[in-house]
């Protein structure tokens, strides 16, 4: 099994991440002696659903020092009441693993009152793949471990999309209109890397605007998508800029669009920007490179910078460009943001080529060098 970047705490924690990121595989390899409660096991799930009080009896029979892993905990969140009791009374240690935060965010669900930390598992980052990392393959079929290790990646991605509809959406009764949600998904995939216009999506999908807002929330809560908010230098009552929308993996985007083969130039631009976004997000969670990731735009909004990493009053600005060779026009946004107080570095990330530095200090890095910088802590805001 490949070494993952995730480091686990020595106390109870939630481990959340999209399906296929390898959470269960990692836990079984790392904690072979743990007591596993797999709620994807239908027999076990039905038994605990019918008689949840039995779970307390199971816990009492275990060695008090033994770790307990509950896999797919969102399927039966009522078990968290007994988890809470076991932590409080016997100092038991749990890993609460799940691929959806939807049920765990509902009112009335016991989130253990801060007794469990939170960790995230992401698709592979280049550091975890070492010499086998290939940017073109990553953009074509993504970096989900389930897909990367498959001999038939396109078929695995197509099956993944169907599994998402069947198990995360239909089985959990997340939406009443499953055909409408199925029409919505490829349209939402076209919004990858863009500020979302809910009205336009609603018109294209043939559903109500309020329904689309709910669908977008479902994609976030099932951990497939995330938003990058607009940067604000000062705290404001109303956010002035709409957040930008990203899927967590290029392969999932293409599966939802039903795209096959090598990505074309237009598709490649959004896929590359999304990969940079997801890589930054992974290293924020794994290594704490920053506290916040936003995007910046000038007052007239004709000039943008894709990502601003922030901790306190310190910032690093990052622009993603998918072109094959550096062009001076790539620097427009980074030059516009140069006067931002606390800005420490300005970087352009592009697929491949030499590392460069402009006369005014903008660093131009190939993606692999940029990923190595993140892995080595060279971009961490202390």
Tell me what the structure shows.
- The radius of gyration is 22 Å and the shape is globular.
- By secondary structure, it is an alpha/beta fold.
- It folds into three domains: 13-120, Rossmann fold, CATH 3.40.50.300; 126-265, no CATH class; 271-375, 3-Layer(aba) Sandwich (Trna Endonuclease, Chain: A, domain 1), CATH 3.40.1350.10.
- Strand 11, helix 14 and strand 12 form a beta-alpha-beta unit.
- It has 15 helices and 14 strands.
- Helix 9 packs across helix 10 and helix 10 packs across helix 11.
- The chain has helices at 23-30, 42-50, 53-60, 80-90, 126-129, 135-141, 145-148, 153-170, 178-190, 198-205, 209-221, 250-257, 265-287, 332-336, 367-375, and strands at 13-16, 35-38, 68-71, 94-98, 117-120, 194-195, 225-228, 244-247, 292-297, 304-311, 314-320, 343-350, 356-357, 363-366.
- The strands form three sheets. It has a six-stranded mixed sheet.
- Count of discrete structural domains: 3
Please outline the major beta sheet.
Answer: 6 strands, mixed
Quaternary structure annotation: single chain
Cα end-to-end separation: 32 Å
Average pLDDT figure: 89
Estimated structural class: alpha/beta
The Cα radius of gyration reads 22 Å
Which parts are unreliable, with pLDDT below 50 for 5 consecutive residues or more? 235-239
Widest sheet: strand order? 9-10-11-12-14-13
Order of helices and strands: EHEHHEHEEHHHHHEHHEEHHEEEHEEEH
What sort of overall outline do the alpha carbons produce when their principal axes are compared?
globular
Helix content: 25-40%
- Tell me the number of strands: 14
């Amino acid at each position: 099994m490949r070494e993952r970047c995730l480091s686990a705490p020595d106390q109870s924690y939630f481990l959340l991440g999209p399906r296929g990121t390898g959470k269960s595989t990692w836990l079984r390899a790392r904690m072979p002696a743990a007591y596993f409660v797999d709620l994807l096991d239908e027999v076990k799930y039905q038994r605990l659903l019918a008689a949840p009080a039995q779970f307390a009896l199971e816990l009492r029979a275990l060695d008090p020092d033994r770790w307990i892993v509950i896999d797919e905990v969102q399927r039966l969140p009522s078990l968290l009441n007994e988890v809470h009791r076991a932590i409080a009374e016997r100092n038991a240690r749990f890993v609460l693993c799940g691929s959806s935060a939807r049920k765990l965010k509902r009112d009335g669900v016991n989130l253990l009152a801060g007794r469990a930390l939170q960790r995230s598992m992401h698709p592979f980052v280049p550091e975890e793949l070492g010499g086998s990392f290939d940017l073109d393959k990553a953009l074509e079929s993504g970096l989900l471990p389930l897909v990367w290790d498959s001999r038939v990646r396109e078929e695995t991605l197509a099956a993944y999309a169907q599994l998402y509809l069947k198990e995360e959406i239909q089985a959990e009764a997340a939406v009443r209109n499953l055909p409408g949600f199925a029409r919505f998904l490829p349209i939402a995939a076209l919004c990858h890397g863009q500020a979302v216009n809910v009205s336009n999506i609603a018109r294209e999908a043939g559903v109500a605007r309020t329904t689309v807002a709910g669908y977008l929330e479902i994609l976030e809560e099932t951990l497939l998508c995330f938003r990058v908010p607009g940067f604000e230098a000062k705290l404001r009552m109303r956010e002035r800029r709409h957040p930008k929308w990203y899927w967590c993996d290029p392969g999932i985007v293409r599966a939802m669009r039903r795209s096959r083969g090598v990505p074309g130039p237009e598709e490649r631009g959004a896929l590359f920007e999304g990969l940079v976004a997801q890589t930054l997000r992974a290293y924020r969670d794994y290594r704490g490179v920053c506290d916040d990731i936003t995007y910046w735009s000038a007052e007239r909004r004709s000039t943008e910078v894709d990502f601003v990493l922030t901790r306190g009053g310190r910032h690093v600005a990052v622009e993603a460009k998918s072109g094959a060779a550096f062009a001076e026009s790539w620097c427009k946004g980074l030059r516009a943001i140069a006067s931002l107080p606390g800005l420490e570095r300005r970087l352009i990330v592009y697929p491949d080529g030499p590392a460069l530095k402009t006369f005014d200090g903008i660093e131009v890095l190939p993606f692999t060098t940029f990923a190595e910088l993140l892995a080595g802590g060279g971009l961490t805001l202390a």
